């Protein structure tokens, strides 16, 4: 399966959909994303990222306008919510779905970050979800807990797929920065599952949609011992990528000084090596 990495927000070709003979990314849903739509989608992310720089340590809301809100996990007196934007439809067919995890360095962040993306995708027929998870400034929790929450969210969605009208085999995960780390961690990091969950239900998504994801957290983990607690080497998705089964689309700024552009490039290279000689 392909990995595509783009380093410019609004000037690229959508040729990523043809990177593999099976064209899995294009087949994922009944959504035809053309160049101008992708550019607008990425621009929305950039604007929303700037707008989320304040008030990110305040509690996330229990509900969002236009969304159905569900508690997917209760832990240490905390109810974690999924806010689901459902397309208007006249048929009962199961739909593709995507769950987004906000960014904020595992310290903070707001579930509203990916609401515009979710609303847009819902208007195009995709069930779109924004997930809350535990962060340091609100819950004094570590990165391992955040990974566990992300895995729990995907398992909850799969276990409730029928009532939500989603296809459990077409469930994507996305996110930005630390949220991108959580999304890709659900696919490749083999640790930090909640012990009391049904592990027969996969926590791995069918597709990854990542914005400036922290795919190699080894260095930052060494600097933030309170958050990583000696697990810096167990948390980087880059270290645990062992197959190329999950198609992945990454948008990353070439001048990013927080998450270096070299990191997703290294991730893509490893992914292509694992894909074998047929990878393009």
Structural class: alpha/beta
- Low-confidence regions: 7-37
- The biggest beta sheet, please? 8 strands, mixed
The helical percent reads: 25-40%
- Strand order within the widest beta sheet: 1-8-7-6-4-5-3-2
Mean pLDDT: 82
Order of helices and strands: EHHEEEHEHHHEHEHHHEH
- N-to-C CA distance: 10 Å
The best one-word shape is globular
SS elements, strand count: 8
**Total helix count?**
11
Q: How large, in whole angstroms, is the Cα Rg?
A: 17 Å
Strand content: 15-25%
Describe the 3D structure.
With about 280 residues, the protein is of the alpha/beta class. The protein is about 35% helix and about 20% strand. The chain contains eleven helices and eight strands. An eight-stranded mixed β-sheet has the order 1-8-7-6-4-5-3-2, sandwiched between helices. Helix 7 links the parallel strand 6 and strand 7 (about 205-210). It is globular, with a radius of gyration of 17 Å. The relative contact order is 0.16.
Features:
280 residues, alpha/beta, 11 helices, 8 strands, 34% helix
Write the layout of secondary structure elements.
Blueprint: E1 3-6, H1 24-27, H2 35-51, E2 68-75, E3 78-85, E4 95-101, H3 115-123, E5 127-131, H4 136-139, H5 143-159, H6 161-164, E6 166-176, H7 178-188, E7 207-211, H8 218-223, H9 225-228, H10 237-240, E8 248-251, H11 262-275
Parallel strand pairs: 1-8, 4-5, 4-6, 6-7, 7-8
Antiparallel strand pairs: 2-3, 3-5
Helix pairs in contact: 5-7
